[in-house]
């Protein structure tokens, strides 16, 4: 386990974060995020990976202040997020969200210039606004920028729309971006260009980023570190090489198994059971009902592991390891 880093090197962090939605239609409350510790260093890209419904998007929206946590805290450069209207407005100058559907994020009645200028106008940053818009579009890869000023979203390709969305973020000069499935709706030929753009922005501007995705290939191509989320909690984390080349958690291994290797004996691991339900988190390890390692374990191993009885502690934000009873060396700390 590594020591806690100097807060001056931390761009964004969550500590013991939880988001619980009220009960509805006869069901219990939904624990969408249930005790998450996560740190994003300055100039670092962290990939948050998991199936649909695991809490990734809720966590992303909590990081940008769109969802107020039920417990725990969000810290920007060591300072806890202030949820007053003034505090949120100030915070969103520094931390911006990039959504997965650029067509839905852009107003069809608004041209590119006004779309990129919207954020600066809302924050009263109107001095030299044309230059701000011009530079933001150029950084986003739309050159020459002035040729795009009067275009509307329907006149742009999907990749160009996503670049306009990113330009709107860059116009505020943020220190952190949270990208929720930023290339999911784009053609394969365009995805690589957008990922290269995010990497270039990190290198040129020192941006930090959390990139939310179900695509492990994206994590390999863009991230410094990876956090794997299941049913509201991070179950494995570490560097890209640690998590993707030497996965420890059965869930991570199952996710990786669906990526074709080209080997003759390649077979994906099919996850058994029902998809995760945040209103009915099982006792013990929350993954054990779908865990092939648990299903195949002998009775003595099951008894020692107590996967169906003993709750796992929460992963600390700066560990490399996995939360699994059946591992010989899980790096954990008590919640």
UniProtKB/TrEMBL annotation:
Under CDD domains, the record lists:
ABC_NikE_OppD_transporters
A single GO molecular-function term is: ATP binding
Please tell me whether the keyword Ion transport is annotated for this protein: no
Q: Which SUPFAM superfamilies match?
A: P-loop containing nucleoside triphosphate hydrolases
Q: Which Pfam families does this one have? A: ABC_tran (PF00005), oligo_HPY (PF08352)
Q: By its UniProt entry, which InterPro entries does this protein fall under?
A: AAA+_ATPase (IPR003593), ABC_transp_ATP-bind (IPR050319), ABC_transporter-like_ATP-bd (IPR003439), ABC_transporter-like_CS (IPR017871), Oligopep_ABC_C (IPR013563), P-loop_NTPase (IPR027417)
* GO biological processes: peptide transport; transmembrane transport
What keywords would UniProt list here?
A: ATP-binding, Nucleotide-binding, Transport
The protein's superkingdom reads Bacteria
Which segments constitute the ABC transporter domain?
12-256
Q: Which protein family is it in?
A: Belongs to the ABC transporter superfamily.
Please report the name of this protein according to its UniProt entry.
Answer: Oligopeptide/dipeptide ABC transporter, ATP-binding protein, C-terminal domain-containing protein
Give the originating organism: Actinacidiphila yanglinensis
